[in-house]
Amino acid sequence: MEQYLWVLKDKELDLIRELEPDRISQLDEDGLLALHKRVRRARNKHTTNYRRGAAEKVAAAGGRGTAAAGSDKARARAYVFEEALAVVSAELARVAHEEAEALKDERLARARAGKWSGPESTAPTAEGVSSGRMKEHQKTTGGAKRDASSQAQGARRQAKRDAR
Fold this sequence. Notes:
This protein is mainly alpha-helical. About 65% of the residues lie in helices and about 0% in strands. The protein is built from six helices and no strands. α3 (about 30-60) packs antiparallel against α5 (about 70-110).
């Protein structure tokens, strides 16, 4: 990637400089997401520009092979940002995995301490730790309104039989 940095403009170089290991390591997950978005936009822009420019030159040159030589700078820009996106994506994946593991460990610790706040968990036992089993729930057909309607329909049917 470094061999193609000469084709970039100052603003683009500033974006690439944010990928230096000491600078990228200071970013949290949200910062990496923002950087990923900016690099992806730049990659898409330069890839589109390269493809459109190369496609326009094909008709004039008479073939793709002869037209390819005129698109070297645009291709280099697209390549730089493709590599930059790979770097940011890998770092983002690493940080997201670490945060997911930390969250998992935190939840497991809370569950072991009996402070789990899961949906309708049973009350903690004398030791302070719940059994981990959820309370029984009512069987529903998929919605409170539908259940109420079905119950009312049954009540009407019963009332009709009782009236005979």
